[in-house]
Amino acid sequence: MEKIRPVDYDIHDLLRRRWSPRAFSDRTIEPAVMRRIFEAARWSASCFNEQPWRFIVGIRGAGDTYDRITAALSPGNQRWTHTAPVLVLICSKKTFTHNSKPNDWHVYDAGQAAAHLTVQAMSESVFVHQMAGFSADKARELFQVPADYEVVTAMAMGYAGDPAQLPEELHKSELSPGSRRPLSGSVFGEEWDTPPSFLDS
Ligand SMILES: Cc1cc2nc3c(=O)[nH]c(=O)nc-3n(C[C@H](O)[C@H](O)[C@H](O)COP(=O)(O)O)c2cc1C
After folding, report:
1. Domain total of the chain
2. Is 81 touching ligand 1 by the criterion CB < 6 Å?
C-alpha cells in the first residue's frame, strides 16, 4: 500500500513515501538488499565516530533469532509483526571506546543510524516500522547483550503488504494518511516558540 504524505513543502520522494506499516507482504528481502540497508547505517555520523549502534537481525525461517526477537516484543506489537520477514533489535554502546567515559549521544547516534537505514530501505521499496514496545530486559537475556550496551529499539522490515491481513482494530491507523504539527511548532527563530523568518511567506 502506498501513502504519499500531505506535505506543506515539497520534499524528497523517498521521505514523502515513508511510513510505518504493520502489514507486510510475504516477499523476503534479498541478501544484497539487506547488505545495502545496513551499509547505509554504517555510514551514519556519530559522536567521535564511535558508531555505537549494533543490530541483531532476525530473518523469518532462518534460525531462531526472529522468534527470540518476537518473544521480547510487547503483545500489542506481536499482533502484527509476524507479517514482517525481518525483525531487528538495535543496541547501542553506552561508553566511548577511546576513554571509557559515558557517551551521552549514543542513543541519538543509534537513532540517526536507524534513519539512514530507513531511507536506504525506502529506496529499495523496503519499509521499516520502529518499535519501543518490547522488553529490554528480556531482549538482553535472550541475546546475552553485554551490560555496556542498551537495547534501544526494535524494528520490523519488509515490503508493504495488504492491510486486510491485520486485525480489524489496526485497519484505521494503517489506512490513515498520518498527521504532523505545523513546521512553526518545531522550528524556531529569534525566540522560543516563534517561527523563523523563512516560514513567514
Ligand atoms: C522510537 C519509536 C518507537 C515506536 N514504537 C512503536 C511501537 O512499539 N509499536 C508501533 O506499532 N509503532 C511504534 N512506532 C511507530 C510510530 O507510532 C510511528 O512512527 C508514528 O505514529 C508516525 O507514523 P509514521 O512512521 O507512519 O509516519 C514507534 C516509532 C518510533 C520512532
Report:
1. 1
2. no
What stretches in the chain show pLDDT beneath 70? Answer: 201
Q: What pLDDT does 110 receive?
A: 98
What is the distance in A from the centroid of ligand 1 to the CA of 114?
Answer: 13
Q: Which CATH number does the domain housing residue 65 bear? A: 3.40.109.10
What residues contact residue 98 under an 8 Å CB cut-off, 6+ apart? 48
In a domain, 68, yes or no: yes
Question: With contact defined as beta carbons under 8 Å apart, do 122 and 14 qualify?
Answer: yes
Instruction: Please indicate, yes or no, if residue 60 is contained in any of the structural domains.
Output: yes
195 lines ligand 1 (CB under 6 A): no
pLDDT at 201: 64
Q: How many helices, marked H, and strands, marked E, lie in the chain?
A: 7, 4
Does ligand 1 come within 6 angstroms of the Cβ of 77?
yes
- Expressed in angstroms and rounded, the spacing between residue 93 Cα and the centre of ligand 1 is 23
Instruction: Provide DSSP, 158-181.
Output: E-B--GGGS-GGGHHHHHS-----
The CA 128 to ligand 1 mean position distance, Å, reads 10
110: domain range? 13-162
12, 88, 99, 103, 145 from 36: Cα distances, Å: 20, 15, 31, 27, 25
